[in-house]
């Protein structure tokens, strides 16, 4: 395969894909493209989030959609000031989500170098276009009355405490689960717990905070909540949990 040279500037780029063969393919295509310089290649979206949260920057991110623990789409929803993004996936079903997240291109695997090159050309065009940059707000803001604001996809979203079913820790992030959707927020369980109303929520596990008003049953050492999900109750949390449960 001949090396194709594209016009300057040279864009730094990153790869995040959990499958080695896909990373190797992208690494090879990047090596054939004069306008790209590979900075990092990672196999996990959480690693990618931590990489960018540490202050590292690239111009273009080649991001897989379906990955364990955290999908590429969910990563984008919580990544402040993301770079130019080219999604890669084996399925076409995520095109609408990709459009909503304003990704630059959407590559369906397997794709050849010609298709890859068109995506790079779009990235180059976007890179040279003027971009307005705003300061990123904090992940959490003080709630008025019965609400909490969280940063999702570069905007602040209001979540009513009554809508929250449970909250789960995920590495350096937390997942706020409601009946309609999940919100992945870059914060700690301790910081979030401090903002929750005491009469609504209780810590039941190192990795879980539970809305007491959404409990449907208690069985086998777990709280059953809407959707049939079982939230585990850790042994060290059981006494405080059942003491509080008896008051509601």
Automatic annotation (TrEMBL):
Stretches assigned to the HTH LytTR-type domain: 148-247
InterPro entries in the cross-refs: CheY-like_superfamily, LytR-like, LytTR_DNA-bd_dom, Sig_transdc_resp-reg_receiver
Pfam family, one: Response_reg
Keywords tagged on the record: Phosphoprotein
Keyword presence, Phosphoprotein: yes
Domain named Response regulatory: residues: 12-124
Modification sites for 4-aspartylphosphate: 64
MF term (GO), any: phosphorelay response regulator activity
Protein name: Response regulator transcription factor
